[in-house]
Structure formats: C-alpha cells, structure tokens
Write a structure and sequence with these properties.
single chain, 74 residues, mainly alpha, Arc Repressor Mutant, subunit A, 4 helices, globular, metal-binding, DNA-directed RNA polymerase subunit Rpo10
C-alpha cells in the first residue's frame, strides 16, 4: 500500500528516497540511473523501489464508494 520505511530483507532505511525516485522516474528518467544516483546499491533495496505499486488512493476511493462490509448491522 504505502512505500515501506525499511527494506524487508536488509533493514536499510529507504523511505526517505521514495519521493525523489518516483518523481524522477515519472519525468522519464531510467529507474536504474535514478537508483544509482540515490545510492541504492543492494539488489534487495532496488527491488523495493522497482516492484512498489502505490495503490493507496484506489483503496480510499473504493472504501468511500462501497463502505465497510457489515456496517449498519446490529
């Protein structure tokens, strides 16, 4: 859902680099180049960036339209 604060494998702090990575990749830069320039060297940390999918907004929209199952029942 949200980008993790630390790498699941090695525990390195990675969340502080997410916004810059995301904006630079969306502007057309190569993900590999951006990760190199941000200093993300370990393949486990690189995997966290490359495989991350930000779908938090979609969940909030779904919840607001359909609500929680079982709401309103006694």
């Amino acid at each position: 859902m949200m980008f993790p604060i630390r790498c699941f494998t090695c525990g390195a702090l990675i969340a502080d680099k997410w916004e810059e990575y995301k904006s630079r990749v969306e502007s057309g830069e190569s993900p590999a180049k951006v990760l190199d320039e941000l200093g993300i060297k370990r393949y486990c940390c690189r995997r966290m960036f490359i495989s991350s999918e930000d779908y938090f907004d979609e969940i909030v929209e779904f919840r607001s339209k359909f609500g929680k199952r079982g709401e309103g029942k006694a």
